[in-house]
Amino acid sequence: MNNRKQHRTSLKDLAKELNVSIATVSRALRSSSEIGHEMQEKVKALAKLRNYRPNPFAQSLRKEAPKIIGVVLPNLVTHYYAAVLDGIEDEAKRSGYSVISANSHESFDIETQAIDNFINLHVEGIIACLSQSTTDYSHFEEIAEMGIPLVFFGRTCLKERFSCVTANGDQAAQMATQHLIDTGSRRIAFIGGPNHLDMVQRRKHGYLEALRENQIPIERELVKCGSIDYDAVLSNTVTLLKEQKPDAIVAFNDIITFAAFNAIREAGLRIPDDVALIGFTDDVHAAYVTPQMSAIVDQAHQMGATACQLLLKNIAGDTGVYHKIVPQQLVIRGTSAKKPQ
User: Fold this and answer.
1) From CA 162, how far away is CA 144, in angstroms rounded?
2) Residues of the chain with pLDDT > 90: what percent?
3) DSSP assignment of 255-266, as one string?
4) In whole angstroms, what separates CA 24 from the centre of its chain?
5) How many C-beta neighbours within 10 Å does residue 105 have?
6) pLDDT (tens digit per residue) in 162-217
7) Are 291 and 335 in contact (CB under 8 A)?
8) pLDDT above 60 (res 63)
9) Average pLDDT of the chain?
């Protein structure tokens, strides 16, 4: 039973075997006049041979003609992504659309499967944030080829082809690092996610710019970028604190921020007296710890609403590629409250 389920033939399987696009296969199966008779016959013959069966749920959805948007997120259990999704849903509802969401769990394979599912469901458009393991963008290029509207938010790619909504992470990281410098820190570490993510690059750039402007030497040992995994970050930060002895940390996102917070405690150090901390995280949880967390806060709901607005423009026929920036806010609290020296 499981084996049959795992090998159910999809439109993508047929397209790959015939070396054509998913759009060509889909149109051929519908006997579209856009596809020649010979290609239609080849596609239909292979579909029969491979026992291809259209998704009955998708068929019933098309029959009722609902307006559905697909959203794929890296980690739906975090407050940030939940708030982004909330913004998308609010904006979609106002325009008569429903939303189907998928959690990639930071996995490229799950992300590509989610995209395939959305295609099979014939969604009107897709909003996506890349998983941390995504470096191959061919599944998104296929969407462009099929003419399905797509908008990225947060972690983006193929900016010349797709609209996107990002935050001003470079400026926010620079402001946060400058605050740490102004309150006496000099050996400031940056703990980030994978270097290939544009979001990581922007935030790291802002951190480095603040050091350069203040003529503080850049120490490679204090820049740690890797997997966004709580346990790994916790362990690596404890080691960083023992070996490199930073007096402050700028943390890339909420998972890394709270891993760093607990690592400082585990190392027997005081916050902020021994190690100050500012993280990119949501304002709700930042206020619940002791001392309260200084944070770079996303306007997540607005980011989701803006992404949905751009997608709806594309769905309505606007072929423009738009790049929108939703500013972040620096909230200073107890974890960075060193007195100026």
Assistant:
1) 8
2) 71
3) HHHHHHHHHHHH
4) 29
5) 15
6) 999 999 999 999 999 999 999 999 999 999 999 999 999 999 999 999 999 999 99
7) yes
8) no
9) 90
C-alpha angle with apex 206: 205 to 211, nearest 5 degrees? Answer: 95
Instruction: Indicate the helix (H) or strand (E) that contains 102.
Output: strand 98-103
pTM summary value: 0.81
CB count within 10 Å of CB 321 equals: 15
Tokens of 206: 């802002």
User: Is pLDDT at 287 greater than 90 in this prediction?
Assistant: no
Q: What is the DSSP string of 174-229?
A: HHHHHHHHHTT--SEEEEES-TTSHHHHHHHHHHHHHHHHTTPPP-GGGEEE----
Q: Determine contact, residues 115/146, Cβ cutoff 8 Å.
A: no
Token reading at 323: 């790049």
Phi-psi region of 173 (alpha: psi -120 to 50; beta: other; left: phi over 0): alpha
The first and second tokens of residue 275, run together, are: 């190690």
H helices of 107-161, in order, are 108-120, 138-146
